[in-house]
Write a structure and sequence with these properties.
The chain is an alpha+beta fold. The protein has 3 domains: about 130 residues, no CATH class; about 120 residues, no CATH class; about 170 residues, no CATH class. Helix content is about 50%, strand content about 10%. The protein is built from 19 helices and 12 strands. It has a 5-stranded antiparallel β-sheet with strand order 1-2-4-5-3. It has a 5-stranded antiparallel β-sheet with strand order 6-7-9-10-8, covered by helices on one side. Strand 1 and strand 2 form a beta hairpin. The longest helix is centred in the middle third of the chain and has 30 residues.
């Protein structure tokens, strides 16, 4: 008998949340406006900035417009939507109104989309597209009236040039794509749009030139991007860590830029661009070490001046990595290398210093890094003054107190200045991190330790890839044609072919632009 009672008990079936939401959406989609609004209120948790505006047309038909306050153009919504519906014929039936709105799309708005899915309606409202509903009609009209405020186009703060363009990307994706299209007026300009982030639904665009960017590279980029599953994407750096080849390397495997001309130049070489909505920084890939050592200014100056600056840049790169390590190794293990007069000066300066050269260098390097970080975080009005005054006061006080030597202050200052010459901030940060283990090797093994550290660094850079492209190309593996734009910058008329990694490799980028000069010489 107890067994029969147990069978008669009502069974509680737990419905999965996703299935329950789908049933609620189906019921709301097949019901009236009131049911739809109730469903959306539950979905939006009665958020106070979402407006549910219900009204009646002159013919007595119930309508509703749902939007988020502050991100749509209310003036256009009132003039183009509400006023148009208020002026319709009082004798218009429900079928006539639906035919006017959904079939003929007679509202004077350029972009209109029709959807029957409340999930799409919900996403459209969150993207700034008001939803227009009519009583008895399952279809919903989504209107493009997005008008979120954004800053004006200004000069790039981190990649300034003297002779080049003064435009920089902003936080709006549409504006950024327009800045790129303005420079590349070609049918090959291709944009693939997607959304990332379960909560943010951030718009991301994959931009490239068809026929110039390799299909294999694009397929790999799509594969890596499609595998990203994250709750929110608030900047391009979120995507970088998901798509880079070696996540444990300190070296950047994509390139950042805030300049439209740099992004367009990368596309002409066969690379692709990732534009993320809400950030003024775009991603360029693939990239090599030598691309990160190039500046936009190199291509707006005369090629001889640009070549000289590049040589200085690479020389100071070595100084920023090795100068403190050489000082530690020579003063600790190899003082016989120093000329006698200089050795007397260095020894006299270090006579009262209680720390070994390695610890002395670490104290000064960490102090310099702290000053650099402080100057970036405090307000710009006082940042420069604090960094300069702090360096002078700390350096002078440390020497007078006998904590460090004057020669070490000079070494650290030259190292800091050399690190500022590296154009790409993330690359400079990577070399600043590499400097410390090489200093430790120099303090333990002298010049032999420095040699071992540089060999390990070289092997790491050889193994590094950016979307399959070797990080040290065209040096390793060697490609003589691509060496025209590495350590030197040859004239524009001499760089005639596309890079080897381009999908248009072998095609002539430009003909002999100085043909007129050779013709003139023949005539003479």
């Amino acid at each position: 008998m107890s067994k029969i009672r147990w069978l008669r008990r009502p069974m509680k079936i737990k419905i999965p949340k996703t299935l329950r939401d789908s049933v609620e959406e189906l019921n709301a989609a097949s019901a009236k406006i009131a049911s739809r609004i109730a469903y959306l209120r539950r979905r939006f948790s009665d958020s106070s900035d979402i407006v549910y505006h219900t009204f009646t047309t002159p013919s007595g038909l119930a309508c509703a417009m749902i939007y988020i306050q502050g991100i749509i153009d209310l003036t256009m919504a009132e003039e183009l939507v509400l006023r148009s519906l208020a002026e319709i014929d009082p004798g218009m039936t429900n079928d006539d109104l639906c035919e006017m709105l959904f079939d003929r799309k007679e509202l004077p708005i350029a972009m209109q989309m029709i959807s029957s899915s409340l999930t799409d309606v919900e996403r459209g409202i969150l993207e700034g597209k008001p939803a227009l509903m009519v009583e008895g009609e399952r279809r919903v009209l989504m209107l493009s009236l997005y008008d979120a405020k954004q800053r004006a186009i200004s000069e790039p703060p981190n990649e300034s040039v003297i002779r080049g363009p003064r435009e920089a990307f902003i936080e709006g994706m549409e504006t950024n794509l327009t800045l790129m299209r303005k420079r590349l007026k070609t049918h090959r300009f291709t944009v693939e749009s997607m959304h990332m982030g379960r909560e943010t639904h951030t718009a991301v665009s994959l931009v490239y030139l068809t026929g110039v960017c390799k299909p294999e590279l694009l397929a790999e980029a799509r594969r890596r991007l499609s595998s990203i599953d994250i709750d929110g994407v608030l900047g391009s750096s979120y995507i970088e860590e998901f798509i880079e080849d070696d996540p444990y390397s300190p070296f950047p495997q994509v390139q950042y830029t805030e300049r439209p001309d740099v992004a367009c130049a990368a596309m002409l070489e066969g690379r692709f661009v990732l534009v993320v909505d809400g950030t003024p920084i775009v991603i360029l890939a693939p990239v090599t070490l030598f691309m990160l050592m190039q500046s936009a200014e190199d291509y707006y100056q005369r090629y001889m001046a640009a070549t000289w600056i590049r040589i200085i840049r690479y020389a100071f790169l070595l100084i920023s990595i090795l100068l403190p390590s050489f000082y530690i190794a020579i003063t600790t293990f190899h003082p016989d290398i120093i000329p006698e007069r200089l050795l007397v000066t260095v020894s006299a300066a270090r006579e009262n210093v209680p720390f070994p050269a390695l610890l002395e260098a670490f104290i000064m390097e960490l102090s310099f890094e702290a000053l650099r970080e402080a100057s970036l975080r405090i307000p710009k009005v006082i940042g420069q003054a604090v960094s300069i005054i702090g360096a002078l006061i700390i350096g002078t006080a440390a020497v007078q107190a006998g904590i460090v030597s004057a020669s070490m202050v000079i070494i650290v200052s030259m190292t800091g200045i050399a690190s500022f010459i590296i154009p790409h901030y993330d690359l400079g940060l990577a070399f600043r991190l590499i400097r410390f283990p090489i200093m430790i090797l120099a303090g333990m093994f002298g010049l032999f330790g420095i040699a071992c550290g540089m060999i390990l660094l070289y092997f790491h850079l050889i193994e590094l890839r950016s979307f399959g492209l070797p990080y040290l190309e065209p040096l390793t593996p060697r490609n003589k044609k691509d060496l025209k734009d590495v350590f030197v910058r040859t004239p524009w008329w001499a760089m005639k072919t596309n890079p080897s990694f381009s999908g248009a490799f072998g095609e002539r980028r430009r003909s002999n632009g100085r043909k007129w000069a050779s013709n003139q010489e023949e005539e003479e």
